[in-house]
Structure to design on (108 residues):
């Protein structure tokens, strides 16, 4: 998983980078086929905003969160991203039922 971390009106500190990487490990535990992640941290007046775009095969998942605290905004973002990844994983599942049709059932 490639991580691209940028800051808009904000310096990305090593502590923020480590925190985001540790939180993104939860997402990669649920879904292994993550190609890359682009995270943008920004500050507008007193609002801390975090946006993430997760590129997976067949889809791009985009999430954004804002809060007064950057770390709580990251936590909320990871929760939303985790829900979207689980939903995407369910949709990608095999929809063919094993032995569902009469022609696939064994005759005895």
């Amino acid at each position: 998983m490639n991580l691209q971390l940028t800051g808009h009106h904000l310096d990305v500190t090593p502590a923020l980078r480590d925190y985001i990487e540790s939180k993104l490990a939860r997402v990669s535990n649920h879904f292994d086929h993550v190609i890359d992640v682009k995270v943008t941290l920004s500050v507008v007046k007193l609002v801390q905003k975090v946006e993430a775009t997760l590129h997976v095969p067949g889809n791009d998942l985009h999430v954004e969160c804002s809060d007064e605290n950057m770390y709580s905004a990251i936590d909320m973002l990871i929760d939303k991203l985790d829900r979207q990844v689980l939903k995407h994983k369910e949709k990608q599942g095999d929809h063919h039922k094993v032995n569902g049709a009469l022609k696939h059932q064994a005759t005895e």
